[in-house]
Amino acid sequence: MKPKFFDQYPPPAGTVVEADQIDCKPLDPLTVAIIGYGTMGRAHALNLHRSGVRVVVGSREHSATGDRARSEGLTVLSVADAALAGDVVMLMLPDEAVAAVFADDIKPVLKPSSIVGLAHGFAIAFDQIQWSGPCFMAAPKGQGDMLLDAFAAGGGVPGLLAVTDSSPPEIWDLAASYAKAVGCLVGGGFVTTFRQECISDQFGEQVVLCGGVIELVQAAFEIMVEGGYGEENAYFECVHELKLITDLLHRYGVDGMRQRISGTAAFGGLTRGRRVINEDVRQKMREILGEIESGQFAKEFLSQHNDPSQGTKALAEKEAASPLAAAGRRVLPRLHPHGGSSS
Ligand SMILES: NC(=O)c1ccc[n+]([C@@H]2O[C@H](COP(=O)([O-])OP(=O)(O)OC[C@H]3O[C@@H](n4cnc5c(N)ncnc54)[C@H](OP(=O)(O)O)[C@@H]3O)[C@@H](O)[C@H]2O)c1
Question: Is 128's C-beta closer than 6 angstroms to any atom of ligand 1?
């Protein structure tokens, strides 16, 4: 099929495709194998299924997520059988598992024409897989359950698209078509590279979303309690109200947020914020960006993630024992008396 969705191939970084320019026809003759039915694999599989795409799920033996896929009406095969059945093989595996699963179970059964797909740039940016055949990324800018809920409600999220240099031009159309079918072209499909996506994703996670903000909240909570303020009060100020501000920021941008808060809050923030996030903190951010770009973080993650004393589980357990986490366990049942999980 002749490529048709982009003005030029490969499209330059920064090109944006709109959902109404794209159709799902390139997927019509293809079967998509979703390898891994975790948060993101499930969202992709169910959204593709809803879009009328033929889907099989690849799962390891005795997998609870494989059982879930089966109970949700999907065909579930072993990882190798799914990779063999799929024309497009989506690696929806944790970053730390993708290298071994690809090398041991997937690559040996792929055909030269098999198209490998990813929802995140890590595997290519940090050489976790070696595949010279066609390969694309459709990375939703949103969490998996959110993508699933948004698509079921008729919407979706924006997406980032990338294709390896050795892929033929029509893989760009396939990437866009795939993104449309999973619901990650709403607000646009942004052309990027695997490396740009991966590095910006990790930097955002570490410095803002999952590192910087959380430590800012922890520190502010502890300083308030140290100063004699009640833990519940500190929790409301430092955690609960964070959502109110981020919702405004998300919807109206930084200037629109300022216009909607009190004059006292705006003045206090504008005059004090930069004392907290000062040049020293900015320098730390540059160092962290350097560690990500050099691959130092990837190496540390792959070697330490499962370490019993300093891996992710051990660090999260330590955090769960913090006064902030304990305050959350007391306050949250009051704020969400009926539960409210989306998955
Ligand atoms: N979570 C998100 O919202 C999100 C957002 C953006 C991008 N992504 C990307 O999506 C991809 C998948 O992430 P995820 O968060 O969905 O992961 P996840 O929830 O941890 O799910 C991983 C899946 O992989 C399976 N798996 C793990 N190790 C395996 C192995 N050795 N052999 C076979 N299957 C194995 C798991 O099966 P079992 O049940 O058997 O363990 C599970 O079904 C990653 O590239 C991630 O960066 C995720």
Answer: no
Q: Say if residues 192 and 57 touch (Cβ distance below 8 Å).
A: no
At 117, is the secondary structure helix, strand, or coil? strand
- Percent of the chain having pLDDT more than 90? 96
On whether the CB atoms of residues 134 and 115 are closer than 8 A, the answer is yes
Domain that holds residue 255: 201-335
- Residues marked as catalytic: 120
Instruction: List, for residues 272-305, the tens digit of each pLDDT value.
Output: 999 999 999 999 999 999 999 999 999 999 999 9
- Domain count of the fold of the chain: 2
8 within a domain of the structure (yes/no)? no
pLDDT at 10 over 50: yes
Distance between Cα 93 and ligand 1 center (Å): 4
Distance CA 14, CA 162 (A): 11
In terms of domains, do 331 and 294 share one?
yes
Give the distance (Å) from ligand 1 centre to CA of residue 261.
Answer: 39
- Residue 115, judged by CB atoms within 10 A of its CB (0-12, 13-18, 19+), counts as buried
Q: Are 82 and 217 contained in the same domain?
A: no
| Index of the ligand 1 atom closest to the CA of residue 79 | 33
pTM of the full predicted structure?
Answer: 0.93
Residue 118's φ and ψ, nearest 5 degrees, are -135, 155
Q: Which of 37, 39, 78 to mutate to test the pocket of ligand 1 (most atoms within 8 A of CB)?
A: 39
User: Which one of 161, 193, 225 terminates a domain?
Assistant: 193
Pocket test for ligand 1, best of 92, 96, 302 (most atoms within 8 A of CB): 92
* Residue 10 domain flag: no
pLDDT in tens, 216-231: 999 999 999 999 999 9
| Residues 29 and 177 grouped into a single domain | yes
